[in-house]
Amino acid sequence: MITVTGVDGSRWTIAGHGSGREGVELATSPTGLYDAPVTTIWNQSAFQAGSSFGGYRTNKRDVVFAVNVFQAAGGSWEAVDSAWRKAWAYDRDTTLTITTDFGTRSLKLRMSEQPDFKPDKDPHLKSMGKVVMTCTAGNPWWVESDVTGTWTATQDTTGAGISQSGTVTIANPTDQPMWLKWVCSAPGKWTVPDFSWGADDRDLARLITLPQTTAGKDLTVDTDPMEEMIVAKDGSQIWALMNGVSFLYPVPPYTPATEVPVSVTGAPTGASVLVVQPRNWSRPWGLQ
Questions:
Q1: Count of domains for the chain
Q2: Do residue 209 and residue 227 come from a single domain?
């Protein structure tokens, strides 16, 4: 089943069970929905025969698809066509969602060009028209719902030299590296893993200790290097207390369920840590 959730909150079923009940259905030959777009990089020296592989770059995703718009649900063709256009914007995200036996994955789209409409005859004659949507996904991944894991301290560690350790379970069944997010309660001083997962043998058991916090300074840590690494709930400049230490490693694709250690000191009973595990996929289905 394919649905569209518009910038105005409207919902459209354009393929699968219930398709067209709102007056819009997917036409044939959409492009850009399958694998994420990639450009490979090849380098060649002056007298080299051939080229050497230099890596690859994942690009924005361009999606082009057509929909058949028709009179439905007591609304005229013009009303349905107008409502469909109001579901899209150039500066806000519309969500395209595909549900299969593999689960539900979504893609955020914005119009990159105006909708194209070239009817052979006046669409009012049959109350139907074909509209071509040209869209861009800045984030090219098909996104599944996040998976979370938690650990809660069962003892008071506010006394001198007292700490408590536990584990959380993480897994990455996707084909893409996964950058973890951590949410740590305050007060407390948390230690969380930044394992290299074999990328660097020196860091197979690397741990990072976060700054000591006081009440009201719950921490949100995003290990993705493209995001702000650490934020305190009260907006204080907690990043300055990291002394230049940063997270380095994502969880590799197809990592099985693994228990990783967490620990806390200087926290009351009930202190907790939450790990958020994003699920990003190259395709709208498969690849498990």
A1: 2
A2: yes
